[in-house]
Known about the structure:
alpha/beta, 220 residues, single chain, TIM Barrel, two-stranded antiparallel sheet, eight-stranded parallel β-barrel
Amino acid sequence: MLKVKICGIKTVDAAIEADQNGADYIGFIFYRKSSRFVTPFKAAEIAKSIKCKKVGVFVDESAGVINGIINLVGLDYVQLHGNEDAKFASKIRRVPIIKAWRFNDDLDMRMVNNYPCDMILLDSFVKGRVGGTGKTFDWHKASLETRKLTKPFFIAGGISKQNVQEVVKIFRPYGVDVSGSLEFKGAKSTNKIREFMDWTNNLRGYVPEPAISDEIVLSQ
Length: 220
């Protein structure tokens, strides 16, 4: 079944909305130059409110800092979104790795397959940007290359309610990574998260479990 990763979560409300509506992963951006940056302490607070998998996104950060944030937040995955080499990946402790690659004509799928990670994320290539551009890429061309991949992969970059069905049809990916299309004035919108998840859940035949109200919990 298609997996959904909602990235750039900065608030408890957005995290709960994603979790309760069937998101499989949420992503915390620990890259200070990103508009979606969240502090590790805030992420740790948010993490307590959800059950879905928690992914920490890092860009050329030190292994020591990454391993410290894994422990503080309780991350389930680390996403390396910079120029981290294979030797660096071996320094990440205890959690699986998602390695992000920006798709262009120079991307060698043999190198991608050989990288020591558990899953792959393909994002748009925009010169001077490491990700989070909201731009799509040549999906049909990329799909010819993704056939060579030997690991589960996510597609990112401009994913929205309007095009997620096309993404699934073209790639048959393990999952999709969505962020910018779920925002209003630079912040995650709970309404947009709900609408996207409703649409995507229909695609994958998923029905979220009903939320347990505080009233019921307190009465037990």
